[in-house]
Amino acid sequence: MMAMWHETGHRAEVTCIERSPKGGTFAVGYADGSIRLWDVASKSVVATFNGHKRAVTALAFDDAGARIASGSQDTDLILWDVISEAGLFRLKGHRDQITNIRILSKYPSSTPSTSTNATSWLLISSSKDTFLKLWDLSTQHCVQTVVAHRAEIWSLGLNPEQDLLLTGSNEGELKAWKIEPGALMDGIKESETGELSKAIHPISTLPLASPYRVSQIAFHPTLPYLFVQSNDRSVEIFRVRSDDDIRKKQARRKKRADAKAALGKGEKVNDVPDNGDAEKVELTDVFSPYLIVRATGKIKSFALPEEMRTKSATQICFALSNNAIEVYNVPKYTKSKENPPESARLYSLDLPGHRTDVRTLSLSSDDTLLASASNGSLKIWNTHTTSCIRTLECGHSVCSTFLPGDQYVVTGTKSGEMQIFDLSSSTLVETIKAHTATLWSIHVRPDQQALVTGGADKDVKFWNIEWRQSEHESGRRIISLVHTRTLKMTDDILSVRYSPNEKLLAVALLDSTVKVFYQDTLKFFLSLYGHKLPVLSMDISYDSKLIVTSSADKNVKIWGLDFGDCHKSIFAHDDSVMQVAFEKKSHYFWTAGKDKLLKYWDGDKFQNIQKLEGHHGEIWSLAVSNFANFVVTGSHDKSIRIWEKLDEPLFLEEERERDLEQLYESGLADILNQEDLPIGSGDPSAEVPTQTETTNVSKQTTETLMAGERIGEALELADREVEANLAYERAKEGLSEEQLAAIQPPPRNPLLAAQNLEPEEWVLKTIEGVQSAALHDALLVLPFSKVMSLMVYLNLWAQREWNIPLVSRILFFLLKTHHHQIVANRTMRTTFIPLRMHLRAALLRQKSTINYNLAALQFIRRQTDAQRTTQFYEEVGLDEQKVLAKITEGKKRKRVNI
């Protein structure tokens, strides 16, 4: 029994976010294929959708916010019903990652009225397979496929009128397409070729100022602006001209052309014939380059405000790759050429986090301060308040440590320098050229009088910690490092470590070995060899009896320092083990790896105690509390996480069961969620039949399997209870009163008796406890015998009008899934005939209730509108009477004055 370590945050990396048009709800896609709906008011997850096998890359709401479409790296599109929290269908057709989705729910005025039906919604999807596809959601089929670009399509933009589409490719090309959804309703064109009608037609290519990949395209919701983001630090803004501006520009162009023709041919302008035809509108006439907004870093994405304070100017928010957020002002368009428009940065959120990977961490002796260093910055944090109290500029740091007294921090850089920082004055005290190559490791001797450094120049250097008088401030002493001796090695040095008893010095080399020397004489003592790849980190236990080494070969080895024997070799991570550290006053140790995991081990029993997930990138650095209260990790995702020790007990058996469940679930995804193979073929490489465009949305997980098992157990319990009651009723038939008194009724099940529930109530309660998004997958687990039993309870629920929406949903799904077995089984007729009658009657009653309520609400609305209208006219009438009274009074005064 051990203590539990706790951490809060997202379970997987966030890959995309989409805001609901109704506001208050955000859909967030994750790298594990799940989608979560977050409510802003409650700051919690209101629904979870699980259907994709790989990371979700695109999300799109419809105008009502009732449905959401998602695209993934698994090349599938899924349409979800937000209200019922269920997947409607899965669309297949793309051959590579989905990059963008747009739902067409509005149509141009020229479109036939039949196309305005809500069931005729269209969906446009783009992919890295260079294809642009148009899907009809009512028929669940792809109605048009367009080879849009020669390279991968990375972005998609749709204007507010939904009749113009822009696509951006990996080669920096921006193309425009005209959308005519009404053409799909016409069927086949009346032509000799019998060509099918198309809704997407190419227009032209819009030139861009940047040749890089077009990462994002967005139209402003209210202002005539088009924003195009390239894969660099800039966003190009185009002004969308109105029809009047386009006609004026065409007239000016025609006038200039006529003037040039007249001058060239010696004719007058009036002599140039005018055919009266309207000039064709070019794409450059519609979109005029207006402004280029440049950020301070590489732009990952941008967002536009939904509501504007002014009708002319707008703002744009950037999310940068260096973990910063910036807001820029886009000024009002003016025709003046004297003062060209310029964007200005309004707000910037760039503190306190790191801009680059957190490569090294170190804690002060009392655990109150945390020093984290990266490429360009050293930050000092308060571990209690988690606030950044110092930010200092430094080199590309890869190692660091606090010096005695916790007032100074020394860092080692890739250029081989040691930089000493004074925390009280926030200044760089001294820069020492310690090595000619990267300084990989620094460690302070346990007596706090010296430190050792190891670098890629094959040198181990020893430094004394001394105090000297400050040159700038009289009476103040500052710390200094004095080089005393050097130990030459045969290979690059990756890590150095003193033993706590100050007798030994361990040096890890690039040749995958660890050399152990006597600290005072530097005489060779032991050589630890066994790793297949270089040792990246190591640590020595508090009693100087064990040394643990972590390597790029994914293994952790525990050695004895007495004879150099390997006690145990553990396959610890699925990737390189970057850091290892013993917990103070124990043989427990921590390991952090490139597989984004942090693991806790028992160095005596060689057991994995706990596995912690939370980082979204490789873990580079690790620091353990001096009082064993917490552990700190720094990662490639530019975040620092503090894992706190709790008082809750932890049982190793439960951890092993959780690991087995995760392993089973990962294998389950490969088996249950794979594509169907040809019948009788056991070879996955065999030819696969043509896939259908539409399939059901399902993804079996451990949760859905357990939910299905709970439903099956509830059905078995209810069936046994019903059979016992029927047997008791049959036994009572034909018996006298004396004989009836001798027969005892069957005992009730303890679960039903404790909650005073009938068997059908128990089954309904069990099904209602299953999450709505996982209900269909849970029902797929049930065998057909349990499905037949469930149909009987569906009839009882429909007869008593218990949760009719849930009854309808279960019934329709089971009929669709088990249609062939149900049709072939004649005994099901006795269940379905009363079920149809009861369900239809219940649905009709609910329909009449809803209609009555709708009529009442419409009546109330009409009354409210009429009351508001009457009040408006009464106020207007009172105002007119006051004005007339003032005029009459003024005339009377004039007459009196005369």
Short characterization:
By secondary structure, this protein is α+β, with helices and mostly antiparallel strands. Mean pLDDT is 83; it is low at 1-9, 108-119, 188-193, 266-278, 675-690 and 894-898. One of its GO terms (biological process) is maturation of SSU-rRNA.
Structural class: alpha+beta
What gross morphology would you assign? Answer: globular
Which range does the strand content fall in? 35-45%
Q: Which whole number gives the mean pLDDT?
A: 83
Helical segment tally? Answer: 12
| Low-confidence spans | 1-9, 108-119, 188-193, 266-278, 675-690, 894-898
| Order of strands in the sheet with most strands | 26-27-28-29-30-31-32
Describe the main β-sheet briefly.
7 strands, antiparallel
Count of strand segments: 52
The share of residues in helices is 10-25%
Which radius of gyration do the C-alpha atoms yield? Answer: 37 Å
